[in-house]
Amino acid sequence: MPRYGVQFSLTQCSAVITGASSGLGAEFASQIAPWANCLVLAARREGALQSTRDAVLAINPGVRVVCVPCDLATSAGRDLLLEHLDVQE
After folding, report:
1. Are 31 and 55 in contact, with CB atoms under 8 Å apart?
2. What whole-number distance in Å separates Cα of residue 77 and Cα of residue 45?
3. Of 16, 19, 27, 75, which residue is least crowded by CB atoms under 10 Å?
4. Higher per-residue confidence, 7 vs 59
């Protein structure tokens, strides 16, 4: 049994990664990149976000990467991110 009782496959996954411009967010993007089908990367710093995008594409050129420069601490930033997701209520 998996360590935390939950097991799922990352193969052909889609993921939203916040704080993706540096630190843990950028590391998560790099770790998931080999298996992902689509990654939505969100962070405030657009230039650094593009660097993460480039790193992800170097790992997996076939992954779809959507960069959303936004500040999730604001309502406008959250709305902007949601506009890029296929979210159903």
Report:
1. no
2. 12
3. 75
4. 59
SS (H, E, C) the chain: CCCCCCCCCCCCEEEEEECCCCHHHHHHHHHHCCCEEEEEEEECCHHHHHHHHHHHHHHCCCCEEEEEECCCCCHHHHHHHHHCCCCCC
In the numeric block, which tokens belong to residue 5? 């009782």
33 neighbors 60 (Cβ within 8 angstroms): yes
Per-residue pLDDT of 3-56, as tens digits, reads 666 677 888 889 999 999 999 999 999 999 999 999 999 999 999 999 999 999
Q: Is the pLDDT of residue 1 over 50?
A: no
How many residues in total does the chain contain? 89
Rounded to an integer, what distance in angstroms lies between the CA atom of residue 13 and that of residue 25?
17
Strand order from edge to edge, sheet including 36-43:
13-18, 36-43, 64-69
